[in-house]
Write a structure and sequence with these properties.
This protein is an alpha+beta fold and about 900 residues long. It has 15 helices and 44 strands. The strands form ten sheets. Strands 20, 22, 23, 26, 27 and 28 form a six-stranded mixed sheet that branches. A six-stranded mixed sheet has the order 34-35-36-37-39-38. Strand 17 and strand 18 (about 225-230) form a beta hairpin. Helix 5 runs parallel beside helix 7 (about 600-630) and helix 10 packs across helix 11 (about 730-740). The longest helix has 28 residues, at about 600-630. The relative contact order is 0.12. Residues about 1-30, about 380-410 and about 815-820 have low confidence and may be disordered.
């Protein structure tokens, strides 16, 4: 039975699966019905903003008689803005306790966060824990007040200079040392101060003559500084009376009206928000200027003043609008920006909380392409603040998962398949280099008569027990020229397959019943499903079947579990190793581990074989359909992604599932029926690898932006674990493409997948041609979907994956198997404060940021995206923005 993960809470689902029933004894005290819930861990906790508490929250459920009650589902619910939890034991244990690990919210304060626990069936029975949230380490130093004052030389300015230190979430940070310096004149009351409990530090500034500047720098932050300017009081001879138009626009003309101006341009200076504005004409009462541009600073009020030979005018405040239009996004809507010369996002001011997902994405198809990027955000409320880099991400923990998911990831199967994929990818790379042209121009054609059938063909008339000489292409050498002779015996003959076994394979391998079971699976549904999705094989040997050879020689290759090769589709006169037909070569069960593959017991082999054949048979179809058209082979990521999709759709056929059902962790990791074949888990492990999870205890800070799925290692120099690159991530692209475009495509998603093989284009062009949508749009929508899927109702449908629920697979889990929050794609989070972040983006990948918070009620945010040296991004880069709240 498969259940939608949306239908029940984690605790409720587990309770239902466990068949929890409370039956009181009517003749005595009720010792089994839950009636009370109490906190047994500390009722008050403290920790750092946004971090996991080291102490678990533990509650105990008791009956009316005061005895502990086990098997009761408990919900752990943080209050708004109070973080999130991972339920360690969401159903009470034998001692009546349930527990959860709590990650605090991001706003500091005493007893600021609240976590409530209640019995799922009795929501009025609840308990509460409070937590004091402490700020994290300081990241930014911002100017608060005291900028752009005027005063008399030798006298203190009326307002002190005030700065505030904040952490990554915008919380004030005390105890930060601030160094103060001046240039241009004047003195400060102190050269060093320390931020107080409000996060602020201040000094008094005694003016010098002319324009003075003061600087505040936080010790230990890089650069962590703020600059203040001030001008001495004018003599009154220079006065500014008006500025036209009433709202200034970057790069456009404006007129300054007043008295005391000089008709000589060289004597006049006009400053708009501290920047000198070019003067185009001047008279004693009027100056015409061009309003400066501010490199993606947000819309705001700016100060305007005139300086005539060092004599300053009064200051007039004017609204300033930008050359770049403000982003207006509805909830769940995506904006795709692809003009690298003007990558500037202007987010409008909001009184309520908003969140934006921002992706900086490379649409290059050259896997070695690595683009340095710098993202700078300026909040209108801190326009004078220097840009401070975000704290670098260190390796983040992938908290130990529970139960069978943890076992699965650490299992021999996961490592076995990783080795297999690396070996298969090496074979595909060799074929691409040496055989693509050969296959296009020398492929065998389907046999039209018995007379034309190859002399090397396995005839359809063979019977179980027949002995047949055979040879296996040597994939560790030249797969076209080198082969290994063997003798085989026919073990099963089906309507779609002929099964041969090497007579020298280890004993205790597949039984006759095993061969028949596998033969039946190939007959139905593997063959028919693959054909319906990908096309009909050419049957170049005329036997109407796939020949499956199980041999210890495959085990000797040291990693591959089974393979097909395009060498079999060309004549032996060109490739002596060719068997001139549709062949699959599989490893033999070897419980002793005699050969390089290592121990490979019969149970593991029986579980792997159907998945392998579904995958590899797809490659046969791809090779044959493309070669018959004279078209180049598909890009490796498309071919492997599609063959990985074959595993899924065949698994659906076997398990009675279908696309579009939003399956969760139970199906993805085979938890609903662990005894069945695992058809799906590898692609989600691949995605976790792409997200940077190098192990169960380490996540790469450079993922996913420096990882790529366009090629396999070593051609792909990205930091993510090799062996998985071109499988699960491209699968997610093709599954998303099928979900989004399949329902309206001629022939459905099967027709779409066949069209990818029938289309002569390769790589990005293949996808774009088939669905008639530009690849930059497809990549931006798919890239956003990896984070937005199932996170909010009403999102743009293009930003979802209808067949799978990534939120439940990577976040909420299933029953008592809960994946913690850090196993999903994890954007770099920033509050609505100024920041600068730098990173490298590899071809096909994106750097993700989450802008999170309230823009101060009236403050706008400007975000510019440039190269690391401040120049425009190259044409292979684009930006996508999704409004999350």
């Amino acid at each position: 039975m498969s259940l939608s993960p949306r239908a029940l809470s984690t605790a409720g689902l587990l309770a239902m699966l466990a068949g929890v029933v409370s039956c009181g004894d009517s003749t005595g005290p009720d010792t089994t019905s839950p009636v009370a819930i109490a906190v047994v861990s500390s009722p008050t906790l403290s920790g750092t903003a946004g971090q996991w508490l080291t102490e678990k929250v533990v509650v105990r459920v008791t009956s009316p008689a005061g005895t502990v009650v086990s098997g009761v589902a408990v919900s752990f619910v943080p209050a708004k803005n109070s973080g999130h939890v991972v339920e360690s034991d969401p159903v009470t244990r034998v001692d009546g306790t349930a527990s959860a690990t709590w990650a605090l919210g991001t706003v500091a304060g005493v007893n600021n966060d609240t976590l409530r626990m209640h019995i799922s069936k009795l929501p009025d029975k609840s308990a509460m824990v409070l937590a004091t949230v402490h700020h994290s380490k300081p990241e930014t130093l911002l100017a608060v007040s005291g900028d752009k004052q005027t005063g008399n030389a030798g006298a203190p300015l009326p307002q002190p200079l005030v700065v505030i230190a904040r952490d990554q979430f915008g919380n004030p940070v005390d105890g930060v040392n601030v160094a103060w310096t001046v240039d241009g004149g004047g003195t400060l009351s102190a050269t060093s101060t320390t931020t107080d409990t409000s996060g602020t530090a201040s000094v008094t500034w005694t003016m010098g003559t002319g324009t003075n500047r003061a600087h505040a720098a936080a010790v230990g932050l890089s650069p962590g500084s703020a600059t203040f300017t001030a001008a001495f009081t004018s003599s009154g001879a220079v006065a500014l009376t008006s500025v036209s138009p009433a709202t200034l626009f970057e790069g456009q003309s404006a007129t300054i009206t007043g008295t005391g101006f000089s008709p000589t341009l060289a004597n006049d200076s006009v400053f708009v928000d501290g920047a000198a504005a070019p003067i185009t004409s001047a008279s004693a009462t009027s100056l015409t200027i061009t309003v400066p541009t501010y490199d993606c600073r947000p819309a705001r009020n700016v100060d305007v003043r005139v300086d005539v030979n060092g004599d300053n005018s009064n200051i007039v405040s004017q609204p300033l609008e930008l050359a770049t239009p403000t982003v207006h996004l509805a909830w769940g809507e995506e904006l795709i920006a692809s003009n690298p010369g003007s990558y500037c996002l202007q987010l409008e001011p909001q009184a309520s909380t908003e969140r934006y997902l921002i992706g900086v994405q490379s649409i290059s198809e050259v896997v070695s392409s690595l683009t340095p990027v710098q993202v700078t955000a300026v909040n209108a409320g801190s326009a004078t603040a220097a840009m401070v880099p975000a704290a670098p991400l260190s390796a983040r923990p992938w908290f130990q998962m529970q139960s069978s998911v943890s076992d699965l990831l650490a299992s021999g199967r996961s490592h076995r398949w990783e080795r297999h994929r690396a070996a298969e990818a090496r074979l595909r790379a060799w074929e691409h280099e040496h055989l693509d042209g050969v296959l296009r121009h020398n492929a065998l054609r389907p046999s039209s008569s018995t007379a034309s059938i190859s002399a090397f063909a396995v005839p359809s008339t063979v019977a179980v027990g027949d002995t047949i000489p055979m040879h296996i292409p040597d994939i560790k050498s030249d797969v076209c020229a080198s082969f290994i002779p063997i003798t085989t015996v026919v073990r099963a003959v089906g309507t779609r397959g002929i099964w041969l076994e090497d007579v020298t394979d280890p004993t205790n391998g597949y039984s006759g019943a095993d061969f028949q079971r596998l033969s039946n699976l190939l007959d139905d549904p593997i063959y028919d499903t693959d054909v319906s999705y990908f096309g009909t094989p050419q049957d170049i040997d005329g036997n109407g079947r796939i020949v499956v050879v199980i041999s210890k020689e495959v085990n000797k290759f040291g990693g591959v579990l089974g393979f097909v090769t395009s060498a079999d589709l060309v004549p032996q006169t060109t490739c002596p190793a060719s068997n001139e037909g549709e062949f699959f070569y599989g490893a033999a069960p070897d419980s002793a581990g005699t050969f390089a593959l290592g121990r490979y017991n019969r149970t593991a082999a029986l579980g792997d074989a159907p998945v392998l054949i579904a995958h590899e048979f797809t490659h046969i179809i791809q090779f044959e359909v493309r070669s018959q058209r004279g078209a180049p082979n598909m890009a490796s990521w498309t071919a492997e992604g599609q063959a990985t999709l074959a595993e899924e759709v065949v698994g659906n056929a076997v398990e009675g599932r279908s696309p579009g059902n939003d399956y969760g962790l139970d199906v993805a990791f085979n938890l609903d029926d662990p005894s069945s074949t695992d058809w799906y888990s590898d692609r989600f492990i691949d995605l976790a690898t792409y997200f940077g999870y190098e192990s169960q205890t380490l996540q790469l800070a450079s993922a996913p932006q420096e990882c790529s799925w366009l090629a396999q290692h070593p051609a792909n120099p990205g930091p993510c674990i090799g062996g998985r690159d071109v499988y699960g991530v491209p699968w997610s692209i093709l599954r998303w493409l099928s979900d989004q475009f399949g329902p309206t495509f001629p022939g459905g998603e099967q027709g779409l997948q066949r069209a990818l093989i029938d289309n002569d284009a390769v790589g990005y062009a293949n996808l774009a041609n088939v669905v008639n949508v530009p690849i930059d749009t497809l990549l931006a929508q798919w890239g956003a979907m990896l984070y937005t899927d199932d996170r909010m109702p009403g999102v743009n449908p293009r930003l979802s994956l209808p067949s799978w629920n990534l939120l439940y697979i990577f976040f909420f889990g299933y029953g008592n198997v809960a994946l913690p929050a850090t196993t999903h794609l994890l954007p770099h989070e920033h509050p609505y404060v100024s920041f600068t972040e730098t990173f490298n983006v590899r071809a096909g990948s994106a750097a993700y940021m989450l802008l999170n918070g309230t823009a101060g009620g009236s403050m706008a945010m400007g975000i510019r995206v440039r190269t690391a040296d401040g120049g425009p991004l190259p044409p292979n880069m684009q930006i996508f923005v999704v409004r999350m709240d």
